[in-house]
Structure formats: C-alpha cells, structure tokens
Specification:
The protein is α/β, with parallel strands linked by helices. About 35% of the residues lie in helices and about 25% in strands. Strands 1, 2, 3, 4, 5, 6 and 17 form a 7-stranded mixed sheet that branches. A 5-stranded parallel sheet has the order 8-15-9-10-11. The structure holds flavin-adenine dinucleotide.
Length: about 450
C-alpha cells in the first residue's frame, strides 16, 4: 500500500515533534502530519515564543522608564516601530520553526502537510487521501475558547490575533485574567495601551498562591493596568466608535475599548480528528483520556499534550511526547509526576510548582509554609527589582518540600531548583545546606528553607 505509516504523529507542536523525533531516534519510521506551513504548533507559531519575544520588548521599555525615573540615567520616550517589532518577533519564530524542519530532515521524519481525521482504528484521511498506520499518536493541541454570542468584529481578538501586533489600541479590554491574559496585559500596557482586565474569579491567575498574586496585582496596577476581579461580562456591543462590554459583579458598568482580547481558556482540538470513528474515548470537553503511558482506550493509539487536558502547557506536552514514543517503541515509560511547573511571564514573573498553601489546606494535607520577602534580597534591590516573595510549602514531620511559589524577576528560571528539590524528595535541610551564590535571588530559596528551620540570619 502506498500511503502507510509505521508510526504516525498527528500534529507538529511541542508534543508532536518531540514524540516524532524521539521515536525516530529509537529507530522508528515516522510520519508527522500538520496543516501548518511551519512546524512547532501553537507554542512556536502563536504561543510561548512570540509572546515571550514581545514580553522581552515590554520589559526593556519598562526598564528604560525605571532608569529614567529612579536611577538618573535618562532615556527618551521609546519610539515604537510596530512593523520592525513584528518582524523581529516573526524572525525569532522563523529561526526556531526552520530549525525544527532541519531536525526533522536529519532524523528522516517524513512530514506531510494536511489535516488528518480518523476513518477507523487503522486508517486516517489526510486532505482526502487515505493513510493506514500501525500506531498513531494524536497531538492536535487546543484552540482559544470563543465566547458565545459575541459579534464577529476585527476588533475582537483571541491570543493569536493579539500576537499579530496589528495595532496598539488606545484602550484595550482583556476578558480573562489567567496567565495568557496577564501576559497580554503586560505587553500591551508597556506598548502604550490603556489596559483593563476583567476576571470572573476572586483573584487574577486563579489557582496560584493568593499572597503572591496580591504582589502581582499591585505591580500590574502600578503599571497602570486596571483589574476587575469577581466581575462578569454580561453583554457586548460593537459600534463604529468602540466595543463596549457591560459588566456585572464587583465592578458594575460599561467598559469601552478600541479592541478586546478574549482570553478565557483553551479548548481541546480532539473532536476535530473524528476520534469516534476509531472508537477512541473522548469526553464532552473534547479531552482524550490517557493513562500515564499516554495510551488511549484503543491499543495502537496514543494521545499527548493539550488534547489530553490540563495543564495545557508545552513542557507537559513534550514530556508526554517522549513517553508515547518510548512506549510505542516497546520501552517501559510513564509520566508519573504531578509536578508540572506553571509560569506567568508577567512583570514580575509568577511561578509555582507542586502544592500551593490553599491546595494543601483544601486537600487536608498536613503542611506548614515559610517565605522570604525579596525586599530583603540584596541582588533584587541592586537590580532594581520591586516586591517579590519566595514561599515553600513543606511537611512539618518529614521536612520534605511539597510546593513552591516564587514571584519576582526571572521567577520562572528560579523555580527549576524547587522543581528538582520536590522531584528528588529534598528536605528543607537539603536546600538550606546547599550553598547558594551571593548575591543572587536564588539565595531566597535557601533563606526560605533556613527560615522554616529557624536558622535564618538574613531577616
Ligand atoms: P499544539 O502546540 O497546539 O500543536 C498542535 C498542532 O496540531 C498544531 O500545529 C495544529 O496545526 C495541528 N493539528 C490540529 N488539528 C490537526 C489535524 N486534524 N491534523 C493534523 N494536524 C492537526 N505553554 C507553556 O508551557 N509556556 C508558555 O509560556 C506558554 N505560553 C503560551 C502563550 C500563548 C499566547 C498561548 C496561546 C499558549 C501558550 N502556552 C504556553 C501553551 C502551549 O502553547 C501549549 O500548551 C502547547 O503548544 C501544546 O502543545 P501540543 O503539542 O499539545 O499542541
């Protein structure tokens, strides 16, 4: 048969390409399918990477303000050349997606451009052509949730449209104060938009530690971002002049803006591959259930990444991709951890892993917490950093660390020490007795462990 794949991977995002490359490295003949012109999925093309490029620009703009206002080093008001900024971002994306094409070629992974749907448990149709397969990995990711009943209007953006950087609206309303919404607020407010965030929950970054979130809330407010929590959008009206949202709840009234970003979560693309034709179990949210080995209920069919549910994050997709490739190739492998770090690349960054204090309490897990304020970190102050916090959740009986939250500059990078500590079953003493270089903000992790042990001398 002409169209046959030994191992087919549907979707070339961070889950799909990691899976395809790992399987090829294990000696498998792999076909990877995706309708996009470039590899890399949402993460590289319209997610993690373009957002971080623009967040870097936002950070530099803020630093020039701080230098001018506080450090006596004057910078003129930044002139923003939107075309150049957009092409810089696109260039970074292009370098990375082009690199993936090279990596696929080097591994002899065959890439097929097209959209795959299941015909049965041994066949998919790719743009009208049938392909049979021995095994398949579904890695089709997710798409932004569109709020029902909203007008079709060029001024209503999802995260993809927002990252296209079409314009800098004078006033911008962001519906949804989760990680993506807050990153968009950070970007557009630095670029000069007057940003308002509307969030249904009682805090932004729902699920993150409340004490750390309060610091982020205050920092964003100081950056002139208006935040309305416990507020629901009850009506939308688009006219020539503006998009107007009618709000109810803690804030009640109308918000008019030149553009609105809908950022209320992402929905699995699972239903789009017609999994029912292959007998694959899928729930009413479009999530394909998998076990720790990324197996679905159908023996030769695996699923990885956003299509398998929360947390919808690139590093989870990548790890699952490796697991699926190994299991499909006859090796024993599993993603046997709940430790998937979360990072909001806001200014300051908010990062957490493992149990939060609220989660530990809700789950009835015996715990204590200790924290260290970044106001007492020499490196933070010397670097112009503002408020920040390092907080550990630990078991008082065993001293084992159960969770960590960090808010401050580069918190996402710092969190890696905590992830490793928890993964390795480290105790407070392991962390406190590890010598952290001075002056670094990584010291705050050691100081927090010392504080819990009663040996801290830096406060
Ligand atoms: P995806 O990256 O969604 O890729 C799926 C691929 O499948 C796509 O290329 C799609 O074209 C293809 N596909 C879909 N249907 C079919 C079909 N029927 N046939 C063939 N191919 C198909 N995560 C982080 O970890 N860190 C971040 O900083 C971060 N920032 C983000 C910022 C934004 C603005 C957004 C939107 C997301 C961000 N994410 C971040 C989330 C991250 O992008 C996703 O979790 C990740 O891309 C999921 O990887 P995946 O492989 O499951 O699927």
């Amino acid at each position: 048969m002409s169209n046959h794949a030994e191992l087919m991977v549907i979707g070339a995002g961070p889950g799909g390409y990691a899976c395809a490359f790992r399987a090829a490295d294990l000696g498998r003949k792999v076909v990877m399918v995706d309708p996009r012109a470039t590899l890399g999925g949402v993460c590289l093309n319209e997610g993690c990477i373009p957002s971080k490029a623009l967040l870097h620009a936002a950070q530099v703009i803020r630093e020039t303000h701080e230098m001018t206002d506080d450090w006596g080093i004057g910078f003129a008001k930044p002139k923003i050349d939107l075309d150049k900024l957009r092409s810089k971002k696109d260039g970074i994306v292009g370098t990375l997606t082009g690199g993936l094409t090279g990596l696929a070629k080097r591994r002899k992974v065959q890439t097929v451009r097209g959209t795959a749907t299941f015909k049965d448990a041994k066949t998919v149709t790719i743009d009208g052509e049938d392909w049979t397969f021995d095994q398949v990995v579904i890695a089709v990711g997710s798409a932004p949730v569109q709020l029902p009943g909203w007008p079709q209007d060029d001024r209503v953006w999802d995260s993809t449209a927002a990252l296209e950087l079409r314009e800098i609206p004078k006033a911008l309303t962001i519906v949804g104060g989760g990680i993506i919404g807050l990153e968009m607020a950070t970007i557009y407010s630095a670029l000069g938009a007057k940003v308002t965030v509307v969030e249904l929950a009682d805090q932004i970054a729902p699920g993150a530690d409340a004490e750390a979130v309060a610091i982020l809330h205050a920092a964003l407010s100081a950056q002139d971002v208006t935040i309305h929590t416990e507020t629901k959008v009850s009506a939308v009206n688009a006219d020539k002049k503006a998009i107007t949202l009618t709000c109810e709840g803690a804030f009640s009234g109308d918000l008019s803006a030149n553009a609105v970003i809908q950022s209320v979560g992402r929905r699995s693309n699972g239903p789009k591959v017609t999994p029912e034709n292959a007998g694959i179990a899928i729930d009413d949210r479009g999530i394909i259930a998998v076990d720790a080995s990324c197996r679905t209920n159908v023996e030769n069919i695996f699923a990885i990444g956003d299509v398998t549910g929360n947390p919808m994050l690139a590093h989870r997709a990548t790890h699952q991709g490796h697991v699926a490739a190994e299991v499909a190739s006859g090796h024993a492998a599993a993603l046997d951890t709940d430790l998937i770090p979360s990072v909001a690349y806001t200014n300051p960054e908010l990062a957490w892993v493992g149990l939060t204090q609220a989660q530990a309490k809700a789950d009835g897990i015996k715990h204590k917490t200790a924290s260290f304020p970044w106001a007492a970190s020499g490196r933070n102050l010397a670097s112009g950093g503002g408020d920040g916090l390092t907080k550990l959740v630990y078991c008082p009986d065993t001293e084992r660390v159960l969770g960590a939250t960090i808010i401050g500059a580069n918190a996402g990078e710092l969190l890696a020490e905590c992830t490793l500590a928890i993964e390795m079953g480290a105790t407070l003493s392991d962390i406190a007795l590890s010598v952290h270089a001075h002056p670094t903000v990584s010291e705050t992790i050691g100081f927090t462990a010392e504080r819990a042990l009663g040996t801290l001398t830096d406060l």
